[in-house]
Structures are given as C-alpha cells and as structure tokens.
Amino acid sequence: MLGCYDFCGHYEWTFAWMEEQGGHELVREYWDVAIRQDSQRHAVAQIAEEGIEGMKKYWGFTLDHEAAGFAMTATDQVFRIDMHECPSKGFLIQNGLAQYRDYCDHCMGWIGPLMKDAGFVVDHEHNHCGRCWWEIRHKDDPTPPSETGALSGERDVRLRPDWKQAAPPDTYSRATDPDEKTPLAHS
Amino acid sequence: MTPDTCPLPYHDTKPVGAADFYFAINATFRFILGKLGMEGLRRYWADLGARYFAPVTQKWTAGGLPAVATYWRAFFAAEPGAEVEVMEDPESVTLEVKTCPAIKHLREHGREILPCFCQHCYFISETMGVPAGLTVRISGGNGSCRQIFQKRDAVQARQDLSQIKEVTSC
C-alpha cells in the first residue's frame, strides 16, 4: 500500500517520474490538475469563496495537521506565511530524498493557479532548506512585498541566521505560475 | 521509534501521517490513468515498488518473511485509521485489512475514488517482493482485503486481478 506517513517521499519521487514520462509540461499539469483541481479542491473552494479568510482557515488547519513550524500573519489586504520548519521539505532532507530538482516548486505549482483564479498574486521566496515566506495580495493591489520584519515582526523567517544559504533563494514576484521565478533552474 | 530501530525506510517526526494526503494519492492515480492509461498507471506502481521502495526490498531480502511482517506492522501503525492484523507463520505473512485507512478517509470526505485504486497494493507489493523471492496474492478490496505474502516458489497461480474488487466511492 502507498501510505500517507511517507507521502512527501513518494510525492517528490513522483515529480521526477512524471518528468521522465512527459517532461516539464507533464509535471506542471500534474500539480495543476491532480493537486489543485482534484486533491486540494477543498482549498480552492474555500479561498475562492472567502479570500484571505479562507486562506487563514485552510492553512491554519493544514499546517497544524502536518505539524509545521510556521507563523501566519493576515490583514484585510495581505496574507503572509513564514515557514520556519517545512514538514514536507524537512522530511525529504531528514531522509536524504531528492529525486526532483526543486521539490519546493510544487507549492507554486498548485497554489499559483489557485490564486490566479481567485484574483490574487504571490510574492514568495524559498531557500531550499525547508524555509520560505509567502505574501498574497489582491491582483489589483500594487503593494510590494514587505521589508524584513515589517509585517510579521520577529516571526519573519528572513531574520533567521540560517535563512541565507550559499545559493540565493528562488524568488517569485507577483507570480501565479511555478516557472515565474528567478533563478529559473529547469531550462 | 528511532530511525535505527524503526523498520520503515523513511522516518518522520510525527507518529502517524496526515490522512488528507490520501486525497493526493487518489488524485495522482486518476491523473496518471487519464494521461498515460492503465499501462502507464501500472508502470507507475511498478516503478514505485522497484525504485522508491528499494530499501524495503533490501530488508525483505535480508530478513525474509519475518521482515515482511515487521514492515507491515510498522507501516499500518503509522497510517491513521488503519485496522490491520498481521499474522505470520513459517510459510507466509497474511495481512487482514479490516479497515483500509485510505478508502475510509476518502469515503468520509466524499471523494470519488478511482475504481482500480485497490490494484496499487498488488502491483507495488509484487514488484517489491520479486527481488526478495516473494510474491503477494490479494483478495477482497473496496475497504477491506486479505494480502498473503509467500515465497515465490511456493505459489504457482498468478494473481487473478478479478479477485481484487473495484472501489465504490460511497
């Protein structure tokens, strides 16, 4: 049986398998069709209906359920997550599992299209070590991402001494697509 | 259980997994079936068994049927909602799956379950078992089943896939 205890392991393995079968486009389609439109359809419905309130409810439940080390900050205009200990990436690091080039891309792979349909854009960085931050605003709100500490205070993951790694973080700016990042690794 | 003593190949800090991940497993099967057909889905399951689960096969190769029993006891202890009895004798290991945790959770949340969902247990386990000289036969499904692991040379008949029930969503 394929279980949920080590889900992140076979999920990450599946990205590489998909790429073998159908290239990068099949991986993108997998995140969008299988994960966003099917597996996470409850998140799609909640966020489409309730916007930032829906984000608070969805991620509050999900990240607690997955025992993540995270902080959520929300106003009427912006929803922010500071992920200090990503349970998913942490599982992969702990077990030495790395079949796909950047596991972290899967989040933008399904959340990006979700936010696009719901009328939001995403500022996001991940440092490939289980730490990332997200700021989600309405697409018509031109506000740039917050300065370090300005929105989530001491909980801002960018304040951690281990935030900066040898390689720069992958950065998304007002994005809704997993390939809208710098540096872009797959091409 | 520490990584040194746990019979599972991959270890988490949580004692059991998050059941909502069954949504993604079911969705992944449906996506592959739609894009690559039944042959592609069976290839996915077989590749998982041969590659992702290779560390389990190594333990089964070294430890034989007792290692199979040990693995499945630890496996189902980490799956939320599973009710499974693992019985072993010198010739076989039998899993009496009284409540499949995946089917249970998917049904509780009104998810449409792929009718051939239960076949994944056969194709993954069989591929895991072959290098260790083992084979599995499954009967039942749709929420409860029996899985018997034996030495390959003790079993002549091939798995009859019609013995694995299709899943109904409700």
Which properties best describe this structure?
A: about 190 residues; alpha+beta; Muramoyl-pentapeptide Carboxypeptidase, domain 2; B: about 170 residues; about 20% strand
Q: Which helices and strands occur, and which strands form pairs?
A:
The complex is a heterodimer of chains A (187) and B (170).
Chain A: H1 7-39, H2 41-50, H3 52-65, E1 69-74, E2 78-85, H4 87-95, H5 105-118, E3 120-126, E4 132-138, E5 170-175, E6 181-182
Antiparallel strand pairs in A: 1-2, 2-4, 3-4, 3-5, 5-6
Chain B: H1 21-52, H2 54-77, E1 83-89, E2 92-99, H3 101-108, H4 119-129, E3 134-141, E4 144-151
Antiparallel strand pairs in B: 1-2, 2-4, 3-4
Helix pairs in contact in B: 1-4
Report on this model:
The complex is a heterodimer of chains A (187) and B (170). Chain A is of the alpha+beta class. Chain A has one domain (7-182): Muramoyl-pentapeptide Carboxypeptidase, domain 2 (2-Layer Sandwich). Chain A is 43% helix and 19% strand. In chain A, helix 1 (7-39) packs across helix 2 (41-50), helix 1 runs parallel beside helix 5 and helix 2 crosses helix 5 (105-118). Chain A is globular. Chain A starts with 6 loop residues before the first helix and ends in a 5-residue tail after the last strand. In chain A, 46% of the residues are buried. Chain B is of the alpha+beta class. Chain B has a single domain (21-163), classed as Muramoyl-pentapeptide Carboxypeptidase, domain 2 (2-Layer Sandwich), CATH 3.30.1380.20. Chain B is 44% helix and 18% strand. Chain B has a four-stranded antiparallel beta sheet. In chain B, a hairpin with a 2-residue loop joins strand 1 and strand 2 (92-99). In chain B, helix 1 runs parallel beside helix 4. The mean pLDDT of chain B is 95. The interface between A and B is large, with 34 and 41 residues.
